[in-house]
């Protein structure tokens, strides 16, 4: 099979598998509590702190600022639901793990919330963020929180987070960014971004699922998420998921070393899009003109449903994604495409093809051929035969 759904989850990197296997096989390895004071516990503590440094390096953060959590959904919920702020401004193209807690909190606490639209290329402009903050200020918010992702999961657009953070800070706002899709695909430097909090997830970079991190620096003071034994600087009690964390760090180190190769995926992505457009000149490639992740392509053909296309690709042995597949497993119209102002008949037709660390040219060509075949079958006899 060909797996081209890296933005949903990346295959486990061999480096992560090896690091976790070694831990599982060590006499007092995976089962050791880093809080134990004996030598085995101290060894586990060292593994934990080495892993913290490895993950922090991928996002340009200080290890001491990083709190391990169960994934980016938890990190995003923690910030959006609990940050000590009096207003929320989130981009309309955020992942549901940002949008849902923001909406729930606004409804429960009566907090003003602005969902900032993206432009037609899928970019949230600093001017749009500034306008949202002015709106919040007019509604009485003095210390709001802005949350804009570094890169979008559906269309891959890279957001001007440093400029957005500068606008936000000038207006007294705190800033969170969901860096899940950017991590390991493009260089990240938390200090240069100028944000107060940043979320990352292991399984998007070739680590195991069920582990992620929230990096907290700057002025965002969060109350502990889980009370108990005081692990993770009292922020998140509970014995740490050491195997997952060790796998996360091994993946982070491999991803950091492979950033150039990731950038090189742009040529394969462009090859795929060229094949799609050659087959179907009416195809719309989303955010094609914007700065995008090199691995991500989202496109639609009027009248072709995403679900049908995915089924055909699946039968042809190619795993791809669509609109909100990463969060629901069911294809629903994309809120991201809607926020970009895409035509309604395209919002439930977008296929997302995302490449990654193990993708080959042959796999991309197989995907393009499979898509060409489904297009000719589904789009009717008017479709061109070649491509
Ligand atoms: N944020 C973005 C942009 C995502 O693509 C995902 C994917 O699921 C998440 C957050 C959630 O991450 P996790 O699966 O670690 O909870």
From TrEMBL:
<dbReference type="InterPro" id="IPR016454">
    <property type="entry name" value="Cysteine_dSase"/>
</dbReference>
<dbReference type="InterPro" id="IPR020578">
    <property type="entry name" value="Aminotrans_V_PyrdxlP_BS"/>
</dbReference>
<dbReference type="InterPro" id="IPR000192">
    <property type="entry name" value="Aminotrans_V_dom"/>
</dbReference>
<keyword id="KW-0663">Pyridoxal phosphate</keyword>
<dbReference type="Pfam" id="PF00266">
    <property type="entry name" value="Aminotran_5"/>
</dbReference>
<dbReference type="InterPro" id="IPR015422">
    <property type="entry name" value="PyrdxlP-dep_Trfase_small"/>
</dbReference>
<protein>
    <recommendedName>
        <fullName>Cysteine desulfurase</fullName>
        <ecNumber>2.8.1.7</ecNumber>
    </recommendedName>
</protein>
<dbReference type="GO" id="GO:0031071">
    <property type="term" value="F:cysteine desulfurase activity"/>
</dbReference>
<keyword id="KW-0408">Iron</keyword>
<dbReference type="InterPro" id="IPR015421">
    <property type="entry name" value="PyrdxlP-dep_Trfase_major"/>
</dbReference>
<comment type="function">
    <text>Catalyzes the removal of elemental sulfur atoms from cysteine to produce alanine. Seems to participate in the biosynthesis of the nitrogenase metalloclusters by providing the inorganic sulfur required for the Fe-S core formation.</text>
</comment>
<keyword id="KW-0479">Metal-binding</keyword>
<dbReference type="InterPro" id="IPR015424">
    <property type="entry name" value="PyrdxlP-dep_Trfase"/>
</dbReference>
<dbReference type="GO" id="GO:0046872">
    <property type="term" value="F:metal ion binding"/>
</dbReference>
<dbReference type="GO" id="GO:0051536">
    <property type="term" value="F:iron-sulfur cluster binding"/>
</dbReference>
<comment type="similarity">
    <text>Belongs to the class-V pyridoxal-phosphate-dependent aminotransferase family. NifS/IscS subfamily.</text>
</comment>
<feature type="domain" description="Aminotransferase class V">
    <location>
        <begin position="2"/>
        <end position="366"/>
    </location>
</feature>
<keyword id="KW-0808">Transferase</keyword>
<keyword id="KW-0411">Iron-sulfur</keyword>
